[in-house]
Amino acid sequence: MQWEVVIGLEIHTQLSTQSKIFSAASTAFGAAPNTQTATVDIALPGALPVMNRAAVDKAIRFGLAIGARINRKSVFARKNYFYPDLPKGYQISQFELPVVEGGAITIRVGDEDKVIRLTRAHLEEDAGKSVHEDFHGMSGIDLNRAGTPLLEIVSEPDMRSSAEAVAYARALHSLVTWIGICDGNMQEGSFRCDVNVSVRPKGQAEFGTRREIKNLNSFKFMEQAIKYEVQWQIGEIEDGRKIQQATVLFDPDTGETRMMRSKEDAHDYRYFPDPDLPPLVIDEAWIERVKSELPELPEAMQARFEAQYGIPAYDARMLTATKETAAYYEATVAAGADAKLAGNWIMGDVSAALNREERDIADSPVAPAQLAGLIRRVMDKTVNNKSAKDVLRAMWESGKDADALIDELGLKQTTDSGAIEALVDEILAANAAMVAEFRAGKEKAFNALVGQCMKAAKGKADPATINEILRRKLS
Predict the structure, then answer these.
(1) Measured between alpha carbons, how far is residue 230 from residues 164, 195, 249, 252 in Å?
(2) Which of 300, 377, 382, 406 has a 20 to 30 A CA-CA distance from 219?
(3) What pLDDT, on a 0 to 100 scale, did the predictor assign at position 264?
(4) Candidate from 114-118, 338-342, 358-362 with smallest mean pLDDT
């Protein structure tokens, strides 16, 4: 039997506010346990929640960025469940009337674009954290995270593979960091993904029974977890067993998912409106203010890059993958680099060096103006591409500008056509067999002759000039 995978994601995005969603306690990461709490966070009797306006601003900003409907009136509810890191015995969330409904994000997998619909995005408070490592036979509870504002972003079950799920999660991660509502730090738990996975026979309209993989904090683990879970579910069904709705965890050491608990449905949480919080009312003036503060969005910037800089759609998409990359590119072009060459260098050698050292482009040791200086020397043929790569490596390590290093390393290329022609004559005379092979129709022999010329010139001759002279002499 052929199977179809059905995937939906629930992503908990920690909003980058200074204080918690219903109290003035700090949201800063890394403080000593239980030092950043307020009476509301630890559920002292009589403590009342007060809504954080900045958290609502960020939710509106997200809704506008995805083309969603901003509900003018939304309601907070109590989601009842009992867990040690939830002091109140309930979580303040939104159920029937979230702040954001609908919207969509376009992802790209291979050469195909696909639109993923969003169901909703609702505000809620985070729970605390259970700590197991420092205790023997016991668990500690750290409530620093309790009350941190979250925007839970729920997709429709529109994804059909682990590749699509990862592409969607990456696109969402890029967007929330781009518009400045989340720092996106997955190691610190700022961006946590829950993945609902089910399988069904191809052609069947009814969904299969889903299992939810909780708290995936890396795209690599997400892909591994989904692939394992899909194969596990197919194996269970083909062996005649039924899938039980459940919450599961992924173990990166074994590469397997394991059941944590049976999965609850909405009615199990006994949602009801929180009597301590009035309805959240958002007027048009509020929405218009937030809209006016939105930065240029990735898709709009991509289209502008294509039109303004005349670069291909692929380049524009890669260069707008993050806000920092886009800013670096524009600064490089503004400093005098050719737009196409600037994109090539940033997507190629600069990105490779950043990946090797696990750096963000904002921390690049080569500033945009320095990269532009190197590109200008390639454009005016002071250095060829091969030598320019050597110069970039030296710039990376020393912090010096291209001009100083070209002189220091003796990499300035020869453009004197007379000198290059004399060198070509020597190579042709010394490689009669290669010349004969080329004239017999073997194009590879021409490339070999170019290589011999470059070697004789110690990499300092202009390859285009060598090619032109060789073609002329061999014709």
Answers:
(1) 14, 12, 14, 16
(2) 300
(3) 66
(4) 358-362
Q: How confident is the model at residue 370 (pLDDT cuts 50, 70, 90)?
A: very high
| Cβ 92 vs Cβ 107: under 8 Å | no
The amino acid that residue 69 corresponds to is: R
**Secondary structure E strands in 354-432:** none
User: For residue 17, what are the contacts with CB-CB under 8 A and spacing of at least 6?
Assistant: 27, 52, 54, 55, 58, 149
- What does the pLDDT read at residue 416? 63
Taking the C-alpha atoms of residue 101 and residue 68, their distance in angstroms, rounded to an integer, is 6
Structure tokens at 442: 């073997």
The first and second tokens of residue 382, run together, are 């002071």
CA-angle at 291, arms to 286 and 296, nearest 5°: 160
H/E run at residue 197: strand 191-201
> Do residues 193 and 222 lie in contact, with contact meaning Cβ atoms separated by under 8 Å?
yes
Of 468, 469, 459, whose CA–CA distance to 383 is shortest?
459
Q: What is the pTM of this model?
A: 0.85
